[in-house]
What does this fold into?
Amino acid sequence: MLIGLVSLKGGPGVTSTAVALTALSGGVMIELDPSGGSIDCWHHATGEPTLVPTASALRRQAVPEAIVGFATTVAPGVRVIRAPTSGPVAESTIAGMADRLLPTLAPVDSTIVVDAGRWARTQPTARRIRDCDVVGVVCSPTIEGVAAARSHLDHVAHVARRVHVIAVGDQPYCANEIAEVVQAPVSVVAWDRRGLAQLIETGASKGWARSALARSTRVVLDELTSAHTTENSDDGAGTTDRALRHRHQRRDEATHA
It folds into this structure.
């Protein structure tokens, strides 16, 4: 399963959610943030960012196992294909892969979590989330955060196969209240700084598994996986996609009325 995560208008929590999902799923995280990766700074990683040789390998071969092999363990249970911290270098590397990375990884029998950072439809690399099975739009549960998610969700849906909103925290608005506004499924991951610090330091340890961050992320992962499984057993179109397409249709009808 390919899970993409994006933020809109600087929403918080994309990388922390991506790391937590990776730790719980036992999969691989890929940094595809054109503004530069964060993992090298968080974990004081050394050596060449592994997204660079990954891009080179894609030009020579398309073997999923070989691509996954570029992931490095930055903490116990957390394997990451790390992007350069420099924005221009990261953007150039992502653009150079020319949409080949995620289709190559589609057959992999594990969870791939893509940290796509802040997303906008005007970015040259906007199509980097196109082949994800689901894209989680990470937002803060505030008026500004929910408004940004609502105004940009249709744009994400034009690129993504399926869209799911992930709120970081449940104050002042809860999942049900946000879902009424954005008209899309909403999950909540805890705003847990202590849990995040523990994850960075100890990885997927038993102690971290008891944190609010781990418990809430486990629920999010189950919801994303369940929705993906349901969609695959449906008629090929997810309920979120159908709802968003219906919204587009109604908007077009109102425009031409």
Summary: The beta strands are 2-7, 28-31, 72-75, 78-81, 112-118, 134-139, 163-168, 186-189. Confidence is low (pLDDT under 50) at residues 236-240, 242-257. Residues 212-233 form the longest helix (22 residues). Residues 2-256 form a domain with the Rossmann fold fold (CATH 3.40.50.300).
